[in-house]
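A quick aside before the break. I want you to see a complete sequence-to-structure record at least once, exactly as it would be stored in a machine-readable document. Don't worry about memorizing anything.
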Amino acid sequence: MALRQQKKYRQVFDGNIIKYIYVELELNNLFFTKEDWQLTVNFKAFDENNRLLCDKPVTQTISKNEDISYIRYSWGKPEPGVYWTKGKYRWEAWVEGNNIGTAYFHILNEGELKPDGSPYFNLTSVKLYEGPFEDTPFGSRKYLKTFNYETARYLWFEISGDNLQTDKSPWMGEFLIRIRSRAGDFIADVFDIYNYNNNVTKIRFTRGWGSKNTGSWYEGEYIIDIVFLEQLLGTVYVNFAKTEEEDPEAGKFYLPGENMPAGSDPKKDENAKELTEAEIMKEINEMIGLTSIKENIDDLYDYLKFVKLRQSKGFDDKEKINLHAVFTGNPGTGKTKVALMLGKIYKNLGILSKGHVHEVERADLIGEFIGQTGPKVKDAIKKARGGILFIDEAYSLARKGDTEKDYGKEVIEIILKEMSDGQGDLAVIVAGYPEEMQFFINSNPGLKSRFTRYFHFPDYTPTELLEIGNYHASKSDVDLDKDAEEFLYTKLVAAYRDRDKTFGNARYVNSIVDEAKMNMGLRVMNENKNLENLDNTALSTITVKDIKDIFRKNEHKAVDIPPDEELMRDSLAELNKLVGLNELKADIHEMVKLVRYFREIGKDVTRSFSLHTVFTGNPGTGKTTVARIMARIFRALGVLERGHLVEVDREELVAGYIGQTAIKTAEKIDAAMGGVLFIDEAYSLLGSSENDFGKEAIEIILKRMEDNRGQFVVIAAGYTGEMENFLKMNPGLKSRFDRKFNFPDYSQDELFSIAKLILAEQELEMDNDAGDYFKKHIESLYSSRDKFFGNAREIRKSLAEVVKNQNLRLAEVPKAKRTAEMIKTVILDDVKELDTTIKEEKRMGF
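That is the input. The structure line, written in tokens, reads:
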């Protein structure tokens, strides 16, 4: 998945497994290279009965550095198969009262997709033929197995199968035809979507890809995947050569898991040269640090030689030599290098035939579609046969608290089967962070029994890191002078003390040397006019300045930004216009005065008090709106450089498998730099179990709040009770969030004022009768409210129906009879569908 874009754009989804449906709006930025600007988009979702499911404003800063910008939102529930039911739905994107885009999608739920088949469609034939853009009529097609790449225009696919829903209702079928090179490189996706009736037993359709002109194809082998609802149905292999060959087996395809036809081996043996024992041990002992690892390797080497000796003397050692191992340690600690050494040892002893290392990660093993994972894993095992299959970040194959099908489990099962009763001539090494690898091993009893050899790679000490840096410099034909070496050592000590599990070790110091070499080159070019007279020392010596420049670039410099009085006036005016929230407004005005005072006397605002804030209250009470205003106020005060708002929830911070939460959370924090990170329903990060990944997200956020003090602000929001528990769960939370704003439910009068404001935005107003009736509707809503009461959101939802009714009523009035007064007025008929029933409070009978 890392090799390709992770988002898969679709129109048809399986309701049994879907959780959230995401919508993405793509915009051409007309202010590209000119200025940053903000855009608010209301994303609305409707079902096929035109019922409003959600209406969510999303505000995003559009960067002047992006010619195309994307704004995204999602709707649904975190449990699969709970929210979405069969039917047709649509997303709408609204900007300033105008619908600027609509996208339809469909939900199916007639049965569960299984690896061995789909409840909707049974693939029976895939035929390929060449043709023009206009296609070739059925009966005139020549089906080919080899195409002439010099004359081919469009590659057409004729796909046939059985409709398995003939006894049920019609269904929307969306098929994906993916074209890849034999090496697996993506070439094109071709889609076909059609509403299939239940009176059709056989389905046949065609799709093509190519060009009207010849010359768009290249010689070689191509792979064609047929996919439905993320499930791989079948695969066809086709050749493009200088000749054309008809296909005597036209229609044949390979089912998921079937062996692909023989092709050229993409990789040759990397370790063809066999080393002697002395050469191998010399190479190992020359590695910097890793004392305990070297001892383990030495002991392993001796033991394997002992076993081989016993076998040569006729001892009946039935015990199978277990070569499989677990490597634990942080990045850059030499795990891959040691795997290469073990491969050489195993080959030297004749235990493995090749001794090479085939390195993979999750993305290389997991398929994009159902049925695609198995073949990928088997292919990786095939390439590693005779050597070592090295699975980096193996923990990502196991999910914590997994409640749905994950292809990582399938990878583990296939590898375990290979380790148990496979062809042999293979060692499997799994590697990753210590804590995560412990969970990975415990996730499946079979892993614990088969991986009995452990190698832990400790972080390099500062002295070892300096030695690694000098070694890397020598390999790059440069040297560090004494001052540079001493300064680098102080930085390595500081980095070592502050390190966490993401510390880069050798990668970290090597990157410093590489950048210092670049700085050296720039310095030499700028300081010397007669470059031809420079000696080798001048061209190869890194000075302390070259290294200091690296850290100077990476330091965050507090910029003295003068207050923006106009933005401040506008932001405070917008705050004051909000209905209710009087106590909160007073608190914010007080905070503004304090910040102004601290800036006037030269006091560091970020050291004086925390700007990180907790918002508590029910939905629809204005928390997001106030967060956006506060971001602009901080910008106006010069406290934040950009003043934009990045809004996230648990879904956007927490990943489904080990190791990815840190990446997702860091990306969102980086996006919020210079602005505000607004975490909605922040309490959900606590999760429901001790091992929940949300706790990892909390730790990362807390660390970045400290490391990047003053560079961004965090606002955590949610229900009052849940947020109190959230702050109590981690001492670091309470100490960093020392400012709290409560958002009470709006009163009935305030809700009516909000209703008038919402209508005024659309140049509408209620007459007296409509207003009186709407007040009764508010009273009805208010009488049944609980902690989930949506406040202003409930009003906005009700008004959406009112406005629709008003528009439909006026649509029946002839244009000549419509007056300006009629167009702007909401009357009783428009609101009388709304519920005005007063829900009585239930009382106990004793």
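Two observations worth writing down. The longest helix spans residues 291-312. The chain has 26 helices and 30 strands. We'll return to this after the break.
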